[in-house]
Structure prediction request, 217 residues.
Amino acid sequence: MKFFVDTADIAEIKELQDAGLIDGVTTNPSLVLKANRPIKEIIKDICDVTEGPVSAEVAATDFDGMLREGKILAAIAQNVVIKLPLTLDGLKACKHLTGEGFKTNVTLCFSANQALLAAKAGATYISPFIGRLDDTNINGMELIADIRRIYDNYDFETEILAASIRTANHVREAALLGADVSTVPPATLKTLIKHPLTDKGLESFVADWKKTGQTID
Ligand code: E4P
Prediction:
């Protein structure tokens, strides 16, 4: 499974990239608002830090506007993926931009049928929102399972990008179900590293090593 980090914060991306923990980045308008900088600057800076796919979302909601903005964003760097909402115009824009050779990420997916349509439109990635479904008492993981099955049934190449990930357990379940990618907020990504028994074990190894009086030279 590939890991993307879901943030527009350059320092956080750099830290995770330097640690070799991430394969790409996703952003959205809310994350751009939080970063409080011009979107073109943000995307350029992210693409300078990582060679992996960087999703940049259009703001327009009409077909022509999405095409125009998508091409502006894609011109920033060769690894930009144009992120489009799962609407009729978004699907049309996806088909069009994919046809022109651009990479696309169809976002705000909440049903298997929406994911099927995105795959038929040639999306590079489909982003089902796990956490936001869970918030409405619908099991987001069932959507990942359904999409995996449907895509495998028809050999769709669209990658399942599990999004709106809130917990380490979401990552584990998405991986077990065969999602191709999880996009995870930086803090959640770091929780994947932690286990209390690792900390406890390391503490006792460090203490015992000190007692040996040895050094490794
Ligand atoms: C994905 O592409 C979205 O940017 C993101 O995962 C949404 O997550 P949220 O529901 O926590 O805002």
